Amino acid sequence: MDFQLDEASSQVVAVARRLGREVLAPVAAEYDRSGEFPRAELRVLFEAGLLDPEIPEGLGGVGLPRWLDAMVTEELAWGCAGITLAKTANNLGLTPILVAGTAEQQARLLTPFTESLRFAAFCLTEAGSGSDAAALRTRAEPVAGGYRLNGVKRFITNGGVADLYSVFATLDPAKGAKGVVALAVPGDTPGVHPGKVEHKLGIRASNTTEVVFEDALIPSEFRLGAEGDGFKVALRTLDLSRANIAAHAVGIGRRATDEAVRYAKERRQFGQPIAEHEMVAAMLADSAMEVEAAHLLTIEAAWRADQGLDFSAHASMAKAFASDSAMRAADRAVQILGGYGYMAEYPVEKLFRDAKIYQIFEGTNQIQRLVIARWLAREATA
Ligand SMILES: Cc1cc2nc3c(=O)[nH]c(=O)nc-3n(C[C@H](O)[C@H](O)[C@H](O)COP(=O)(O)OP(=O)(O)OC[C@H]3O[C@@H](n4cnc5c(N)ncnc54)[C@H](O)[C@@H]3O)c2cc1C
């Protein structure tokens, strides 16, 4: 095992670090205020090959291993997690095609993402189906040559900007998880349109909307995998993307720690920098320790997926631990900046608001703990 990156990987991380610090961080507060979609900055990521780096080289992509993609995401999220989320939502939207698409579907659907700036979205959640993700009501009714799609997906990242949606719908609600089909749905399909735009606590540069399907006709050639396999495709996709979500949280936690350290060295109270007051120093040490542990868990989970090892529980550990640590690090950073930490002029207030979502989406941290506990039970009896 070698923690020293080779030259090529170091360069990839260095580019991501530069983009996070010089392109995303300076505009983060403005997008947070306006809630606009950061298309210009995402174009910069696209041109650097870092918007969809998971697309394999054979399809015209960069084909980064997942562990390196996670390190890229950490650096970008250091600059702005909200902007970086468009990258991770692309990854979520495209992964079902990598997981279940035929070679022909992959070439047809993924190659355009290597040629021009495009966005994808992953449409699983509905009003009545969140953690219980198999309780879908969006219907895919078999018709001649394909499916008629009807329903509303909720809280969809990139929902209002996507050129391509991965949609999970039920053929028969009575069949539960076994009745789900996965469909690739081009954004310009008649009967497909974004619904309500959500106004959020944090990650406000990220676009979150409903996505509405009204008698949309989807040809069979856009079905991903077999009928009834859709739920497995969704779970596999979420497993694969979880380390990337954890990487966002590592980026937020690291930024919060960096901001807190910088401030604590400058701010003087009782005749000395507050960093020299032991209770402040201990808070900084706790954040540094947890963020570093979260980084190692994240990279290990992504690396296990790259190696084809069992990784699902590790990805859940990384996601839950990294997001809980990011929340704690952001909380400590606000505390260390005192009254200034509560003000929008300083970046830690935004980090505090951004961190919260990572404990909720892509499976809440309660659901991650269920996954880990079930894995433990299986391991114990193996
Ligand atoms: C900003 C944002 C972006 C999102 N992006 C997407 C996206 O791109 N695509 C997509 O499909 N979805 C997306 N989601 C949806 C997200 O994944 C869900 O919100 C999340 O999975 C939780 O579902 P829910 O909100 O319905 O909460 P619920 O499932 O109703 O959970 C409510 C509470 O109950 C707890 N709970 C539920 N079941 C259990 C249980 N068995 N044991 C213990 N506790 C339990 C939960 O942990 C939680 O605390 C997004 C959500 C947000 C807020």
Secondary-structure blueprint:
Blueprint: H1 7-34, H2 39-47, H3 66-79, H4 81-100, H5 103-115, E1 120-123, E2 139-143, E3 146-157, E4 164-170, E5 180-186, E6 192-197, E7 208-219, E8 223-224, H6 230-266, E9 268-269, E10 272-273, H7 278-307, H8 312-336, H9 338-341, H10 348-356, H11 365-381
Parallel strand pairs: 1-4
Antiparallel strand pairs: 2-3, 3-7, 4-5, 5-8, 6-7, 9-10
Helix pairs in contact: 1-3, 3-4, 3-6, 3-7, 4-6, 6-7, 6-8, 6-10, 7-8, 8-10, 8-11
The structure holds flavin-adenine dinucleotide.
Flavin-adenine dinucleotide is lined by residues 89, 121-125, 130-131, 155-157, 200, 208, 357, 360-364, 366-367, 370.
Explain how this protein is built.
The protein is 54% helix and 15% strand. By secondary structure, the chain is of the alpha+beta class. The chain folds into 3 domains: 7-115, Acyl-CoA dehydrogenase/oxidase, N-terminal domain (Butyryl-Coa Dehydrogenase, subunit A, domain 1, Orthogonal Bundle), CATH 1.10.540; 120-227, Butyryl-CoA Dehydrogenase, subunit A, domain 2, CATH 2.40.110; 232-381, Butyryl-CoA Dehydrogenase, subunit A, domain 3 (Up-down Bundle). The strands form 3 sheets. The protein has a 4-stranded mixed β-sheet. It has a 4-stranded antiparallel β-sheet with strand order 2-3-7-6, with helices on one face. It has a two-stranded antiparallel ribbon with strand order 9-10. Helix 7 runs antiparallel to helix 8 and helix 8 packs antiparallel against helix 10. The longest helix has 37 residues, at 230-266. The protein is globular, with a radius of gyration of 21 Å. Bound molecules: flavin-adenine dinucleotide (FAD).
